Amino acid sequence: MESEMKAVSSKDQILQPIEGSVKDDRPLLKSESNLDESSSSSSYTVESILELEKKYAAYVRNDVYGTMGRGELPLTERLLLGFALVSIVPIRIIIGMKLLFLYYFICRFCTMFSIPNRDEDDDQQEQEDFAHMVGWRRSIIVNCGRFLARVMLFNLGVYWISESHRELLAVDNPETESEEIERPGTIISNHVSYLDILYHTYSFFPSFVAKRSVSKLPLVGLISKCLGCVYVQRESKSSIQKGVSGVITKRVLEAQKNRTAPMMMLFPEGTTSNGDFLLPFKSGAFLSKTPVVPVILRYPCQRFSPAWDSISGLRHVVLLLCQFVNYIEVIRLPIYYPSDQEKKDPKLYAHNIRKLMACEGNLVLSDIGLAEKRIYHAVLNDFLQS
């Protein structure tokens, strides 16, 4: 593996055409065919589930809690869960709610009498945010947001974060700035858990892409607008998505030119995996043709994995709160400047960033995506209910 990483570490070796000439020794998972929709839950056996886990390995849980977090636990683990449920879980919930309310009131105070910035995509779907405020209001929102995000991580058991920096992430020295050097406007990261959002908020305080319904949620809705979230309708395949791509590209270009504008935080995989794999990247994150900051997140664990893969949201939150210590490992790669060829071909740009991140993060490339994840979840639900 070490020799493989050295072989791909130089940019010249990464910049290859996608078709034909790309050689990748890493195993790829193939989504050969979808499951037969006529199959009934009674047709699934333990053996067939094991076969599915090989096919959908990117979504298989690798901890003691097993499939969908419902595996048979040893007595010691059940005792630990019981103790945590009556001790640290209530404390963490109370502290977490207080932190959420505190930051909401900070955002509410700082946005009083302020007019939000508004953008409209191609289908007149309004994008509203407070990320373009300047002065003391914006400074309070950013600094308090970063601090409280770290406190929230601490409350969730992330007492320390292991970070490795390969190079400086941004050109902050005025003596080195020139017209030839472009500032990055985008942070590209693999997507493993909702903890990713807390880490990136603490580290960068960027704008995120979120479901449109998030903007209407109590408390979280205003906070998402202060972050400058771009709202999308995930299920939409119409021109709405094209309009959203335009809004994202506009935000990226603005962040590149204006230091006070928030960078865009994009998860090009489009869904979460178990953290050991890297799913296909959507090229929409690279349409701006600007430099990006690649960040790799890992969540090493011995008991419960913080990865949100094949487990329900409520069960995941409860088991995460029950775990006394959680770990985050971060690899920040140098700013990646696209070549002229990559600027002309967003798919090539996405492909090369993905190859680089997989190599530096020791991640396995997988070609399955959200559609296969839903199929896998449906099969598991049928199997467990039968």
UniProtKB/TrEMBL annotation:
Residues 1-40 are annotated as: Disordered. The chain crosses the membrane at residues 79-106. GO terms for cellular component: endoplasmic reticulum; membrane. Keywords: Acyltransferase, Lipid biosynthesis, Lipid metabolism, Membrane, Phospholipid biosynthesis, Phospholipid metabolism, Transferase, Transmembrane, Transmembrane helix. It is found in: Membrane. One of its GO terms (molecular function) is O-acyltransferase activity. InterPro entries: LPCAT1-like (IPR045252), Plipid/glycerol_acylTrfase (IPR002123). One of its GO terms (biological process) is phospholipid biosynthetic process. Its main location: membrane. It comes from the Eukaryota. The keyword Protein biosynthesis does not apply. Residues 30-40 have a biased composition (Low complexity). Residues 185-300 form the Phospholipid/glycerol acyltransferase domain. Pathway: Lipid metabolism. PANTHER family: LYSOPHOSPHOLIPID ACYLTRANSFERASE LPEAT1, PHOSPHOLIPID ACYLTRANSFERASE. Belongs to the 1-acyl-sn-glycerol-3-phosphate acyltransferase family. This is Phospholipid/glycerol acyltransferase domain-containing protein.
